[in-house]
Structure of Carbonic anhydrase:
Amino acid sequence: MIFSILFLTSRFAYSFDYFFQGTDWPDLCNQGTKQTPIDIEADLTVKILSNEPEYSWIEFHMQELGLQANTDGGGYKFLGDFGSMTMYQGNLAIMSTKLVNFHFHSPSENYLNGSQFDLEMHVVMEDEAKIYSHAVFGVLFKVEEGAFNTFIDKVAKAYYGNMIITLAEAFTSLQVKNYLQFSGSLTTPPCTENVFWIIDTNVRKISPEQFNFFNRMWAGNEKFAGGNGNNRMIQPINDRTVTHFIGFANHFGYIGILLGFYLL
């Protein structure tokens, strides 16, 4: 009886869990045909080169903040006013957002060409024009022996105390010109749709030790959802278009980017 009360209290407090990877969320999620995460197939994307009029590129402005991780409900989240993102077509700003949190899922929620990654970071933004419910910038990470990611190192240390963190350390450039874009949803209840999704095609590398920090919390922890990760299962793509914006108009740059995407 006591166990049942505690179990129900826990589910009420957190609203959802990952015991069934989100398959038991229909009563908590908005129903729709544009849910996230999805599996993105390179050969089915619409490719737009930088010399085409509809090509768009992204610029981030970020600031440092002293932060400690928020681990409520089995997540790993950082809250704050991290800066802004502007999307441009040429020199014309077509979207402006405010960065409000970033958090992590392991293993990754979104797939590329049927492949799942070791870790995924979501940078959640508010659309200043309120055309979209949210905008989310997704960054994928894979484990590689000998790799070391300075940003992830700080993110892990923030679990134990306040750390000065800037999202800029996660980027090689704050101008993102190669990315995937699609319409989707939040990946946790209430799974709100009309989310403007951006997936960076630049997959970052982390060390096995850095990955273990996240793995010990989720997929490598039998006490967390029976050893599942904190990732929602893949959702049907339905009739959605995924656009691949490619920031190099020359032939060789285009082939190189496509080859890298296909090999992911």
Q: What stands out?
A: The chain has one domain: 40-262. The chain has a mean pLDDT of 90.
